[in-house]
């Protein structure tokens, strides 16, 4: 099949209220017509996603993105011009005609323009925005290949557009522009260092420690950043100190899969397995979800992640957050 045929089929599916999985630079999304409440409900149902967790709306360009928001502040325009298409999601006051289930009944809407040619073509041809939560069952690891998505759903339920492996590998940075201070609700590859020069002011990070709100901490504004998430079926253990690794492996009480970075590579024999992780943060992020899925599919008793030593960048922080939640 040609790509044009694929896109036409996908557009038809969206127009009929169906669900299309689409590639982005971050992770694959589960797309549906953002103006069609029933189609959006189908996405929630397929994912088993709690109704109180709002969806990101995906647009083909800034102009289309503006149609979902009530007003477009100068800083939104500056960010859009600098980072779109790209891994940045903006939270803004929502326009009245966006179905309530898209925003979980809230007054704000999250929107971004993803950086993937196939998907920009898809949304452009469809002519209006689509919702796009990550294409995994709620709580499981996000998909970074078409195969990851296809593993979860029947072709009748979800038409998968194959755009190759995702180049970034972790979800977009979610930036809330509704309060006084621009606030990062979810970390991604873009952080304060990239955003502040464009905003001309400081940004804050919301407290999104694992279970922050559940543990009695301050409630967070983005429901999706609390609680367990990105979790394999297999329990995950994070190891900072490798000196007692043999004991840690023995303690697992059965076969383990080890993920280790360069310089901290661990050689293990049967019945264990090892997956080598890249040393650079960008490469680590790109491989992370595929590695966790691969490890999970082996069905060990535990996945042991030997943490990288150098973690001084935004991408490492974002990776760390995913790993913490995979292990929570
Ligand atoms: O990279 C991404 O953002 C991917 C790709 C497919 O674009 N999408 C994605 O969607 O990660 P999802 O649904 O897995 O995560 C969306 C996150 C959740 O944490 C959700 O709570 C938050 O965005 N969110 C959505 N709408 C929001 C809103 N109005 N206010 C605050 N947070 C919002
Ligand atoms: Mg998700």
Task: Please give a structural write-up.
30% of the residues lie in helices and 17% in strands. It has 328 residues and is of the alpha/beta class. The strands form two sheets. The chain has a ten-stranded mixed β-sheet, sandwiched between helices. About 3% of the residues have low confidence. A hairpin with a 6-residue loop joins strand 8 and strand 9. The longest helix has 17 residues. It has ten helices and 14 strands.
Output the radius of gyration: 20 Å
Given helix and strand content, the structural type is alpha/beta
Number of strands: 14
Q: In percent, how helical is the residue content?
A: 25-40%
**SSE pattern, N- to C-terminal:** HEEHEHHEEHEHEEEHEEHEEHEH
Low-confidence segments, given as residue ranges, are 210-220
Count up the helices: 10
Q: In order across it, which strands form the biggest sheet? A: 7-1-2-6-3-5-4-8-9-10
First-residue to last-residue Cα separation: 42 Å
Principal-axis shape equals: globular
What fraction of the residues are assigned to beta strands by DSSP?
Answer: 15-25%
List of distinct ligands in this structure? threonylcarbamoyladenylate, magnesium ion
Biggest sheet character: 10 strands, mixed
Question: Could you outline the blueprint of secondary structure elements for this entry?
Answer:
Blueprint: H1 3-15, E1 19-22, E2 29-33, H2 37-47, E3 56-58, H3 62-66, H4 74-83, E4 88-93, E5 108-112, H5 117-126, E6 130-131, H6 146-150, E7 158-160, E8 173-176, E9 183-186, H7 192-199, E10 204-205, E11 236-239, H8 245-252, E12 256-260, E13 273-276, H9 281-297, E14 302-306, H10 314-326
Parallel strand pairs: 1-7, 3-5, 4-8, 9-10, 11-14, 12-13, 12-14
Antiparallel strand pairs: 1-2, 2-6, 3-6, 4-5, 8-9
The structure holds threonylcarbamoyladenylate (TXA) and magnesium ion (MG).
């Amino acid at each position: 099949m040609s790509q044009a045929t694929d896109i036409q089929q996908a557009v038809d599916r969206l127009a009929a209220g169906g669900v299309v999985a689409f590639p982005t630079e971050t992770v694959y999304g589960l797309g549906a017509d953002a103006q069609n409440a029933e189609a959006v409900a189908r996405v929630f149902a397929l994912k088993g996603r709690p109704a109180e967790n709002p969806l990101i709306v995906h647009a083909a360009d800034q102009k289309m993105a503006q149609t979902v928001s009530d007003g477009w502040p100068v800083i939104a325009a500056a960010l859009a011009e600098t980072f779109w298409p790209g891994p940045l999601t903006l939270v803004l006051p929502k326009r009245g005609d966006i179905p309530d289930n898209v925003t979980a009944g809230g007054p704000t809407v999250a929107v971004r323009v993803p950086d993937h040619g196939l998907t920009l073509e898809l949304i452009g041809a469809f002519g209006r925005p689509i919702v796009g939560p990550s294409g995994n069952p709620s709580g499981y690891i996000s998909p970074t290949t078409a195969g990851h998505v296809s593993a979860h759903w029947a072709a009748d339920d979800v038409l998968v557009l194959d755009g190759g492996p995702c180049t970034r590998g972790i979800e977009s940075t979610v930036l809330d522009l509704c309060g006084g201070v621009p606030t990062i609700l979810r970390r991604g590859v873009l952080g304060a260092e990239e955003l502040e020069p464009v905003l001309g002011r400081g940004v804050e990070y919301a407290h999104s420690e694992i279970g922050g709100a559940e543990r009695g901490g301050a409630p967070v504004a983005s429901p999706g950043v609390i609680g367990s998430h990105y979790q394999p079926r297999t329990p995950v253990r994070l190891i900072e100190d490798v000196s007692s690794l043999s004991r840690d492996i023995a303690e697992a009480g059965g076969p383990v899969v080890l993920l280790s970075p360069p310089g901290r590579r661990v050689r293990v024999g049967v019945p264990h397995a090892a997956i080598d992780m890249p040393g650079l943060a960008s490469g680590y992020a790109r491989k992370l979800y595929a590695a966790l899925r691969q490890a999970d599919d082996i069905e060990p008793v535990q996945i042991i992640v030997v943490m990288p030593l150098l973690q001084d960048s935004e991408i490492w922080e974002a990776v760390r957050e995913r790993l913490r939640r995979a292990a929570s």
